[in-house]
Amino acid sequence: MPFKPIQAAIAIVVGLIIWFVIPVPNGVTPEAWHMLALFIATIVAIIGKVLPIGAIAIIAVTLVALTGVTNESPKEAIADALSSYSSPLIWLIGIAVMISRGLIKTGLGRRIAYYFISIFGKKTIGVAYSLTAAELMIAPITPSNTARGGGIIHPIMKSIAQSFHSTPEEGTQNKIGRYLAMVNYHANPITSGMFITATAPNPLVVDLVNKATGSEIQLSWTTWAVAMFIPGMLCLLLMPLVIYLIYPPDVKVTPDAKKFATDNLTEMGQVSLHEKIMLGVFALMLILWANIPALIFGEQLSVDATTTAFIGLTTLILTGVLTWDDVLKEKSAWDTIIWFGALIMMASYLNKLGLISWFSGNIESMIGMIGVGWVGAVVILTLVYLYIHYFFASTTAHITALFAAFYAVGLSLGAPPMLYALILAAAGNIMMTLTHYATGTAPVIFNSGYVTLGEWWSIGAIMSVVNLVVWIGAGLVWWKLLGYY
Q1: Residues 2 and 113 in one domain
Q2: Cα separation of 82 and 146, whole Å?
Q3: Cβ(378)–Cβ(447) under 8 Å?
């Protein structure tokens, strides 16, 4: 990604204005205000894609240490700037991204998708559900939703469309390609919301909830997966049908798709040893993340989620499924560790320095004047939180910038901590449906040309409403049964 001087100048000017021009408000310390200046400049740089996000994160860490906004002592300042890199959550996502490389390298991800299509691919909607099922199967161990939806599922989707001569180049995308591309994309936000490890920003939500509640609410991998399973599955079941009704494919019956998948499975041959090992590691990690050994034999056999990820990666290295070169070349994993650590550090110090409590107090006063109670407040906050994503090109930037403040306001107005955490966590994934730049998967699929800009935005708005109503509606019932509020 080339350096963008205009966007860089905008980010710098924004930071300087907040730091030097805007007076420090009453109730805010200069250190907190200066950290806000650095934080907002960083977010503006990320939105403007001044540099790759990892490079921006390195600059942010440098500036936090250099300016001493957290501590006047240079040694303490650099220690503060690097403090979040010891967070297990950061390493959980980074290691899981490395593990997901095995799905691509061994071909297991493609085999799973072809397998579902070979069974359910007689009709177009069956192909759509097959792609959705494959997306769901690999979601728990692919924290890069872009790698999952754009790198694994999308090439398969395009191959199927091309086998029916449904391509933008031929002007025949409406035969089957447009519909499958929409399903390919809209399965991605839903599966991302179903597991902590299904997209990189989810652990950030876990960390922010933990800090905001003083560790009273800790969203474990199992807690998240169980809480989101029923709402997520309902959304996955409805999504292909909704898109089918709004943008129906011209081709409704697809016997060739089943043959296409079967031929590809034949070409791949028997399941290789490395695929079997990858599948075994996948199963082992799910068992440990679900805490099944502890449930059967007692808490002494409980294994931490990040430790589980390390066990999975270690097994893949020892068995030769992944080499150390594979791990070193997984740039997205190392990139995630770098930018994730920087953003968590900055968000954490905004909270420690008192800015989040000051901001949330002001928003609380404004909503309190309306007199809607905590239920009305949660509705307003959730809708604003979700639809403000039209102005963001990164879910990470959005969640880093706004989650802590919105969550703090809801809690101060009386929202049940666990319930509100799950609602905002769901909204943070549903918002990916909105635009062709909402998350990394979006431009990959949009740029393939099967869906026009107008179609993308219209179905995005519709699916955001459908997902929000179904997810929160079903969630309220399910979460009540689970005793979360």
Answers
A1: no
A2: 27
A3: no
Query: How confident is the model at residue 285, as a pLDDT?
Result: 83
Residue 2 located in a structural domain = yes
Residues forming a β-bridge with 123: 253
Nearest alpha-carbon partner for 396 in 47, 23, 35, 4: 47
Q: In terms of residue numbers, what domain contains 214? A: 88-329
Q: Is residue 337 part of a domain?
A: yes
Answer yes or no: is 224 within a domain.
Answer: yes
Q: Give the side-chain half-sphere CA count within 13 A for 179.
A: 28
Count structural domains, the chain.
2
Widest pairwise Cα distance in the chain: 70
Q: Is the pLDDT of residue 433 over 90?
A: yes
Per-residue pLDDT at 115 exceeds 80: yes
Residue written as token pair 């440990």: 288
For 363, how many CA atoms within 13 A lie in the half-sphere containing its CB? Answer: 23
Q: Looking at the structure, do residues 46 and 124 belong to the same domain, yes or no?
A: no
What dihedral angle (degrees, nearest 10) is formed by the CA atoms of 30, 35, 41, 46?
A: -170
Q: Do 415 and 479 contact (CB within 8 A), yes or no?
A: no
The stretch 190-214 carries a mean pLDDT of 91
Q: How far apart are the first and last CA of the chain?
A: 46
Joined together, the tokens standing for residue 429 give 């994934």
Least confident of 5-19, 62-76, 357-371: 357-371
Burial zone of 202 (CB within 10 Å; 0-12 exposed, 13-18 middle, 19+ buried): buried
pLDDT reading at 247 higher than 90: yes
Instruction: For 204-242, give the secondary structure using H, E and C.
Output: HHHHHHHHHCCCCCCCCHHHHHHHHHHHHHHHHHHHHHH
d(CA 329, CA 334): 9
Residues 253 and 292 in one domain: yes
Asked if residues 231 and 478 have their Cβ atoms less than 8 Å apart, the reply is yes
The DSSP output letter for 17 is: I
Structure tokens at 417: 């901590």
Q: Please give the Cα distance from 473 to 423 (Å, whole number).
A: 10
Comparing CA positions, the residue from 36, 356, 91, 355 lying closest to residue 212 is: 356
Name the average pLDDT for the chain. Answer: 89
Burial class (CB in 10 A: 0-12, 13-18, 19+), 138: buried
370-397: pLDDT as tens digits: 877 889 999 999 999 999 888 777 788 7
Tell me, yes or no, whether 115 and 13 share the same domain.
no
431 falls within a domain: no
